[in-house]
Design goal:
Elements: H1 2-104
Length: 105
């Protein structure tokens, strides 16, 4: 009877040790899986951030190009107005010079 009880105790200890080993192995598997998942997530987020940065740079370049084009158009319009005004003033100046010349004769 004592031998039977000792055998049961040893069997129970063996089963407990096996359960502990399985639990340790499962813990290690879960830890490794967590590490892989976090590494994968980190890489995905880094890629996402990089894409967002590239998009912001492209958007900024587009805005800068549009502003540049607008400023060039404004400058060209101002030059055109000044040129027209200058041409108009040339005609008046010639008229005044001729009038002064005629008066001096």
């Amino acid at each position: 009877m004592e031998a039977e009880i000792l055998t049961e105790i040893k069997d129970a200890e063996k089963r407990a040790d096996e359960a502990i080993e399985r639990a340790k192995a499962e813990k290690e598997r879960m830890l490794q899986e967590s590490i892989r998942n976090s590494s994968k997530l980190m890489a995905e987020k880094e890629t996402e951030i990089k894409k967002l940065q590239e998009k912001k740079i492209m958007d900024f370049r587009d805005k800068a190009r549009i502003i540049k084009e607008e400023k060039l158009a404004e400058g060209k319009a101002a030059v055109k107005q000044l040129k027209a005004k200058a041409e108009k003033n040339i005609a008046k100046t010639v008229e005044i010079v001729i009038k002064k010349f005629e008066e001096s004769i």
